[in-house]
């Protein structure tokens, strides 16, 4: 371990070029000086725990390709260790840059350690999920000190970023109570934090001991992902007082973290009408001083359970094009059940589409090149190249295979009326047969 | 038949309130005077052929709920009449407001007549698809007069709207030839029109005989859907000279149609980067004088064959929220094969999500009510109501059924950690068990 710096942000401030920075600059095809300058300001992070040896580091933030996260983990209703590890491998094969281990029951420590061992993707956790299982006692009996101990344990295990609902402090709760909303607190970690605070009549431990928390983050270089306990759970509640009040607290915490050179990501909505997304991207960037924005969704309508990979692909694409840096996948199982492997695959494809569409929109370097190559292949009726460039090759191949056209180079949609085929012929002065 | 007016637009101009107007005003919960005023100006249409007895009329345009269209039809690669009629019935059951019959081979007339007989949804066609099969001769040998005869035949059969690529005239082709694009003309009807013009060295018959075409439209009250032959087939080609030149011609044709009281819809892209959609909505509304905009997609990235119901749901939702009035569905089979029934279902759900998300965004009256009811049910953990409000009930029910939770009112995603359940308990002062 290089002793000359603590966190990646600390290195940037000292002008030290780390291997992780070099790797990110190479992957993104950007200038290393520009990268360091942005890391110094906190608008780019490289979540990379010093104990995560197998990581292939990725940057998240301003001017970089939008990254995606996949949620996994073992729980009471799904404790099959091996099945979950298979999903992990599939997610990495599908190029997810991050995996959040949301395990809440069973051998969570063993699972987490194996995950860190095998994963080149960055690993995130929500320590509060692990709290009750870890101590095997009632949430109300857990002490503030124990909240921090679990964070330390995750840091030791090599977790790259942790979600902490530190913005749900007593002040935020006052605003929440004065401003009625339809769906209260829908964040799982947020509701647990609220529960603990109400039962014990105490301040949020993550907020009260934020400095101690930062010290742990510095020790392992854990990136803080400041969770949004008050993210809207319905389009009705979006952009309301509770959400914005919490975001303001997160902005203040961001500055405190940066003072100690802790890297920060801010988490965001949630359910949100399509016309509110752009303003919400602006709000986060302003109130949180340009910290990278990590959004779950936004889900643009509440009425499509079974199809929330689509409602969130719509919101995620818009969010990414307007400044979101990191998208959490949502699967077709959202609001209905724990996702299985097929749900995970559909969720990953949808969020990859959203991220890429957003990258084209915000003019990320070379984002359009992929599309250009695909459209050249399409123009040439070069099916093999089209397949190899497809966002999910297996389905594209299968679809064509299941429906063989009369004419080899066309497809059964138009057959001999294929506009690509006919325009190519006529532009070359060749005769065209349609009948 | 009421002899006092020709088309719905003609009635509006004369201040006559038709049954169709009353029905639309009732469905949309808007004032009849406002509806008539907008129909007079052409910014709302009610496509409704006088020979389509079974129709349940719908309005398309300014201030109304975004409507959706489903493409179907028999072709060389799929000539099973009965199978296609089953799809029609399913599409109507799923509340598609329009069905375009894109039949290009076989007993197209019989299919069209049966379709009109059974369909409460409005029916659209692209007469040029039917041309070669109808006369059973080479495209090049078909006369301009014969182009019009097929339109007359479709009108007689009760077709409510027809796509005509009248904007691809000699002037547009000059611009197309001077401004190189990656994917030329990807519109099927547009490429056939181009082919005929090039082989015969003649003006586009739909453009040259536009007045005669209008006379046929008046006779049956066919709504003209002015097709975009130059719609971009890749994000690379979007918003280019060919596309905009053609749109300008469509704007001029719109005014000519309105002069004869023919209702008009204008068709639009296509493949398009997410950051260009809003400007394109504005361009159409300006250049085409507020005529309702009917978009195919926009597909926001070229790289996702097998998932173009998602790429187009993203684009469609944005388009609808920024002024598009009518969305054409795109299925997972796009760019790969003719869609089967399952593809059709997935396509309909995706476009319904896009239309509704767009309606929330453009603040269509009561659009959010559906979401509100769903989120109340979600808050109450009232699964039966959630299912009945779901955009596709079958999948939501199946997903939950396949994965039974430990605690009846929660789901396997969070189990006892369900934020809805726990927040409800704590807000009521009840004890919460998590372990």
TrEMBL record, chains A, B:
Keyword annotations of the record: 4Fe-4S, Iron, Iron-sulfur, Lyase, Metal-binding, S-adenosyl-L-methionine, Thiamine biosynthesis, Zinc
Keyword Iron-sulfur among UniProt keywords: yes
UniProt: substrate binding residues: 71, 100, 129, 165, 187-189, 228-231, 267, 294
Biological pathway: Cofactor biosynthesis; thiamine diphosphate biosynthesis
Reactions performed catalytically: 5-amino-1-(5-phospho-beta-D-ribosyl)imidazole + S-adenosyl-L-methionine = 4-amino-2-methyl-5-(phosphooxymethyl)pyrimidine + CO + 5'-deoxyadenosine + formate + L-methionine + 3 H(+)
Keyword Transmembrane: no
Binding-site residues, [4Fe-4S] cluster: 411, 414, 418
A Gene Ontology term for the protein's cellular component: cytosol
HAMAP family reported in the protein's UniProt record: ThiC
Stated family: Belongs to the ThiC family.
Descriptive protein name: Phosphomethylpyrimidine synthase
Species assigned in the record: Helicovermis profundi
Gene label: thiC
């Amino acid at each position: 371990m290089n002793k000359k710096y603590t966190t990646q942000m600390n290195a940037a401030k000292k002008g030290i070029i780390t291997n992780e920075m070099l790797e990110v600059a190479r992957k993104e095809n950007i200038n290393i000086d520009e990268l360091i300058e942005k890391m110094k300001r906190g608008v780019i992070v490289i979540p990379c725990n010093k104990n995560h040896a197998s990581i292939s580091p990725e940057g998240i933030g301003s001017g970089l390709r939008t990254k995606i996260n996949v949620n996994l983990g073992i729980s009471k209703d799904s404790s099959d260790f091996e099945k979950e590890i298979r999903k992990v491998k599939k997610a990495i094969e599908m190029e997810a840059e991050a995996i959040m281990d949301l395990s809440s029951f069973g051998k969570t420590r063993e699972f987490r350690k194996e995950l860190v061992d095998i994963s080149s993707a960055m690993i995130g956790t929500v320590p509060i999920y692990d709290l009750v299982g870890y101590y095997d006692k009632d949430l109300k009996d857990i002490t503030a000190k124990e909240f921090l101990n679990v964070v330390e344990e995750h840091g030791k295990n090599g977790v790259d970023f942790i979600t902490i609902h530190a913005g749900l402090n007593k002040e935020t709760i006052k605003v929440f109570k004065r401003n009625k909303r339809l769906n209260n607190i829908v964040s799982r970690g947020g509701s647990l934090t609220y529960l603990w605070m109400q039962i014990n009549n105490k301040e949020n431990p993550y907020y009260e001991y934020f400095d101690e928390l930062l010290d742990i983050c510095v020790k392992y270089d854990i990136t803080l992902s400041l969770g949004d306990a008050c993210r809207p759970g319905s389009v009705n509640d979006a952009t309301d007082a509770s959400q914005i009040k919490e975001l303001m607290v997160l902005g203040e915490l961001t500055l405190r973290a940066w003072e100690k050179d802790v890297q920060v990501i801010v988490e965001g909505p949630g359910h949100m009408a399509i016309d509110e997304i752009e303003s919400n991207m602006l709000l986060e960037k302003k109130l949180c001083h340009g910290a990278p924005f990590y959004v779950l969704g936004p889900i643009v309508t509440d009425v499509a359970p079974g199809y929330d990979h689509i409602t969130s692909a719509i919101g995620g694409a818009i969010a990414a094009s307007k400044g979101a840096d990191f998208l959490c996948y949502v699967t077709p199982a959202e609001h209905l059940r724990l996702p299985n492997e097929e749900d995970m695959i559909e969720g990953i494809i949808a969020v990859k589409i959203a991220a890429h569409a957003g990258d084209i929109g915000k003019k990320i370097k070379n984002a359009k090149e992929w599309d250009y190559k695909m459209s050249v292949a399409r123009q040439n009726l070069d099916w093999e190249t089209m397949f190899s460039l497809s966002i999910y090759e297996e389905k594209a191949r299968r679809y064509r295979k299941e429906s063989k056209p009369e004419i080899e180079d066309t497809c059964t949609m138009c057959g001999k009326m294929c506009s690509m085929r006919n325009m190519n012929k006529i532009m070359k002065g060749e005769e065209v047969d349609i009948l």
